[in-house]
Amino acid sequence: MEENRLQKYFEEMGSRQLLSEEQERELSAKVLKGDERAKNRLVEANLRLVAHVAREYQGKGLAMDDLISEGNMGLIKAAGKFDASRGLRFAGYAAVYVRRAMEKALQRESSETMVESRGDGQKRSLDAPLGAKPNLNLLSVLVDGSSPLADGRTYSRSQEEQVERALRSLDEREDRVVTAYFGIGQEHQTMAEIAADMGLKRERVRQIRDHAVRKMRKVFREH
Questions:
Q1: What is the 3-state secondary structure (H, E, C) of the chain?
Q2: What share of the chain is helix, strand, coil (3-state, %, to 5)?
Q3: pTM, whole model, 2 decimals?
């Protein structure tokens, strides 16, 4: 976010009226029964919490808008689990989820930056390691669905052909994300780089990648 837009956002969040304890109890009861409107209201009334926590992590590796985006995801998750009947206030409960979401995003960014810093200039194939993680590649992700780490096995040409078949099952956007992230025929790109190239949010890129991997895994196992 640009500085003036960010300031405007903080001001808007600060002007929103907080919920009373009674209102939180009422909304919580509805949310636990599956009321999405109540969940949205609980989230929207507490967006200032995310903005406040984001300031704590500013300058640590992620842009403020990315921190807020990640924190909002944590806030939504907290809203779905919050049970006010236990005597808790939502802000205190949700802060844990918000901080955890931001910290995980920072850890991912740090890991991707380490990969990027290697800069060996080599093209990567289907079974080439992903950056600084020697056991992580697209083949290992598809072969072992329970873990992104391979066990050092040797991959055959037939398995590579299966991966190529699985890649062909992707639509144009999914293919672009997967080939860029896993460095297939090109340099590995971080989530931030892919998001910038495609004009998307980092979280949206991550969703596309995960959906594409699930689709590929299904095709891979069927053959």
A1: CCHHHHHHHHHHHHHCCCCCHHHHHHHHHHHCCCCHHHHHHHHHCCHHHHHHHHHHCCCCCCCHHHHHHHHHHHHHHHHHHCCHHHCCCHHHHHHHHHHHHHHHHHHHHHHHHHHHHHCCCCCCCCCCCECCECCCCHHHHHHCCCCCCCCCCCCCHHHHHHHHHHHHCCCHHHHHHHHHHCCCCCCCCCHHHHHHHHCCCHHHHHHHHHHHHHHHHHHHHHC
A2: 65, 0, 30
A3: 0.52
Question: Confidence band (pLDDT; 50, 70, 90) for 90?
Answer: very high
Distance between CA atoms of 154 and 131, rounded to whole angstroms? 19
Residue 58 pLDDT class (50, 70, 90 cuts): confident
- What pLDDT score does 29 carry? 95
Question: For residue 212, is pLDDT > 60?
Answer: yes
Which residue type does 67 have? Answer: L
- pLDDT level of residue 155 (50, 70, 90 thresholds): very low
| Cα separation, 116 vs 188, whole angstroms | 8
